[in-house]
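S.,

As promised, the zinc ion run. Input:
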Amino acid sequence: MTPSNPPPTADGAANRAKQPSAPLTKQAQTSLDESLTALYQQAIRVAEQAYAPYSGFRVGAALLLTNGEVITGTNVENVSYGLTICAERSALVQAVSRFGPEIRIEAVAVANLNNAPSPPCGACRQVLAEFILPDAPVIFPAEGGVRFMHFNELLPMGFEMKLK
Ligand code: ZN
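Predicted complex:
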């Protein structure tokens, strides 16, 4: 987090969380656009730290939490390929480690240094679902440019544990 780019207050997050389906006012939309742009820049910056000696695919993720903090992460590859962790999950485990199990994510940005599409993979969507507000905006590189989707559009039927 850079001091010159303070994240939005937790107040705004709480208000959005209460009314997940309410349309954003023009002012709120503008402020959201600005915070998402800042979040995307942070995802790009952290991608420089990626450990990707096998694929060369350098990804960064930035999570805006409802407490106003931004937590970033990169992909960390392993010679045993299946042990690789994505940037999104890397950021998430750091967020929980720093702030505990009550964290909630109100926005996600994913970026890469390869000029390639990189929506969150299925595993990351399921893991994010545990902590993210259903209508949280997610931005990521797609064919033709950066794409914006709400989380519940990205993962409409995530797994839930509902035993009877
Ligand atoms: Zn992933």
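The first helix runs from residue 10 to 18. The first strand starts at residue 59 and ends at 65.

- D.
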